[in-house]
Write a structure and sequence with these properties.
The protein has about 160 residues and is an alpha/beta fold. It is built from five helices and six strands. The chain has a single domain, classed as Maf protein.
């Protein structure tokens, strides 16, 4: 059986694959994602397609160093008010993001790609529209205090899996 590599350091993604019965190893793709997505944003490509391109590029990058292995790349983008958002860089930014989301909807795009020897074997993108209930500033502050800075690893400043 061919080796399966997850092109990510995400423990959540690794756990999900292992819980599905896959024997995987992990190798993070060392890519400058912002430089890959900038021309895509300028050409007005949608958030789902940007997630797909990033997932493919991550898998291809790791595939280049692992002949014959099957490499799984993934990415997620979040679009809010027509803008592509990235992970918050501070707790204050996370709090502001959650306040912005309060009572409103945003789009979460999840992409996955399988690559072998640089060739795309399969790819998929799924879209979810998430609507937050009204959140009070006190609730948000309490939530962020409970979760702590690990929330900064999530583009939306929330973690559905948690």
């Amino acid at each position: 059986m061919k080796e399966i590599i997850l092109a990510s350091k995400s423990q959540f993604r690794a756990r999900m694959l292992k819980n599905a019965g896959l024997d995987i190893c992990q190798q993070a793709a060392d890519l400058d994602e912002r430089s890959i997505e900038q021309p895509l944003i300028k050409s007005q490509i949608n958030g789902g397609d940007i997630a797909a391109v990033l997932a493919i590029e991550k898998a291809r990058h790791v595939s280049n160093f692992n002949q014959d292995s099957i490499v799984i790349g993934s990415d997620q983008t979040l679009v809010f008010d027509g803008k592509l958002l990235h992970k918050p860089t501070s707790m204050a930014e996370a709090q502001a993001r959650l306040l912005d989301f309060s009572g409103r909807a945003h789009e979460l795009n999840s992409a996955v790609a399988m690559v072998q020897n640089g060739e795309i074997l399969w790819r998929h993108v799924d879209h979810a529209t998430i609507t937050f209930r009204k959140l009070s500033p006190e609730f948000i502050s309490s939530h962020l205090a409970d979760v702590g800075e690990k929330i900064l690893s999530s583009v939306g400043a929330y973690q559905i899996e948690a």
